[in-house]
Write a structure and sequence with these properties.
With 342 residues, the protein is mainly α. It has one domain (3-338). The chain is 72% helix and 0% strand. The protein has 15 helices and no strands. Helix 2 packs parallel to helix 12 and helix 9 (209-229) runs antiparallel to helix 10 (234-254).
């Protein structure tokens, strides 16, 4: 079997769909926050989205990084350098390019930026505030490349759970230890998926409908409790339930009732497209949102719901053709904005 066939066989379509679901909620959450309006229903919707969407992305990142466990020491150096290119180049390039825009629009920015804050790029605080994920993900991957292997994986993963619970409980904004657990959980999920395939089952989530229902009920109860009490440690439970439900939904969109892969339907194709362009959408959506908000909210004063909808749709959809027909066609842009090889 050729290497391309191996790669095709090892790809998990349901994970690409899960990534599409994740980027959908990331952009929606950011669109809701663009205007600063905080009505009751907005607060509830924000709680739902932010209860799981970033832990989901760290989990999916861990899923595709499971090879860390088997890497030799010299391979780990190459791995870290490749992840630095992929994550830090877009982080710094877009952040630096965004500074003049943020300074120009500081009077109407949701989070104003000052020239004296430029150094904070080095600690994960980017003028394009959404890009913090790229920085923290690199730090987590660096830590895992240095410390984690097949022998100590479970010990470190269990320890990271208690550390993450402590961070959530104390409501501390320390992102690396908070999300390390979810990244390592993604590696564990990948191992389970691979075990399922080795056992002859393509659909690793097959036969888990009742468990998915229980997870949904638990998630709803936890979100209501979180909304009413703001006890942030509850977000550990909502994150775990949310991740599980997204993986289950993705599998149901990928496989039929017999556990065999099926032709993707309309919604599956849309989510798959979003998943395949999730990096492109992530790095481009914030500037698009800023420009559109400035025009239709700050200048024209349109209705909040309409503004949020337009901001959301534009930020979700515009990056795809822009990246497909421009950025990905021009090697320097692909390198600088997406961190892909020149």
């Amino acid at each position: 079997m050729s290497s391309s066939e191996d790669k095709k066989k090892s790809r998990y379509t349901e994970v690409d769909i899960a990534r599409g679901i994740g980027i959908f909620f990331v952009v929606l959450g950011h669109a809701i926050k663009q205007t600063g309006v905080s009505a009751g229903w907005i607060r509830i919707l924000t709680y739902i989205i932010y209860s799981f969407h970033m832990p989901l992305f760290f989990c999916l990142s861990g899923f595709v990084s499971a090879r860390i466990l088997q890497m030799r020491r010299k391979d780990r150096v190459s791995y870290v350098l490749s992840r630095a290119r992929r994550l830090l180049i877009p982080y710094f390039v877009i952040g630096l390019a965004y500074i003049p825009v943020k300074l120009k629009l500081s009077d109407v920015a949701v989070k104003p930026f000052a020239v004296s804050d430029i150094w904070k790029l080095l600690i994960g605080q980017n003028p394009d505030v959404s890009l913090w994920f790229l920085f923290i993900l690199f730090v987590i991957e660096l830590i895992c490349a240095m410390l984690v292997n097949a022998y100590n994986f479970r010990s470190i993963w269990y320890g990271s759970f208690f550390l993450s619970v402590a961070i959530y409980w104390a409501n501390l904004d320390i992102r690396t230890p908070k999300y390390l657990f979810f990244f390592l959980m993604g590696i564990w999920v990948r191992l389970k998926f691979e075990d399922s395939r080795k056992a002859g089952y393509e659909d690793a989530m097959d036969g888990q409908d009742l468990l998915a229902f229980l997870a949904l009920v638990t998630d709803i109860i936890a979100i209501v409790f979180l909304y009413r009490t703001t006890i942030t440690v509850t977000m550990m439970l909502t994150s775990l339930c949310g991740i599980y439900l997204v993986l289950w939904i993705s599998s149901r969109l990928t496989y039929n009732i017999d556990g065999e892969k099926k032709e993707p339907g309309r919604w599956a194709r849309v989510l798959l497209l979003l998943g395949l362009f999730s990096m492109d959408i992530y790095v481009l959506h914030e500037p698009i949102m800023t420009v559109i908000r400035l025009v239709i909210w700050n200048r024209l004063g349109w209705n909040y719901v309409l503004c949020t909808f337009i901001i959301f749709i534009c930020a979700l959809c515009i990056p795809i053709p822009v990246s497909k027909w421009i950025i990905r066609k021009i090697p320097p842009l692909r390198f600088l904005l997406l961190g892909e090889k020149w």
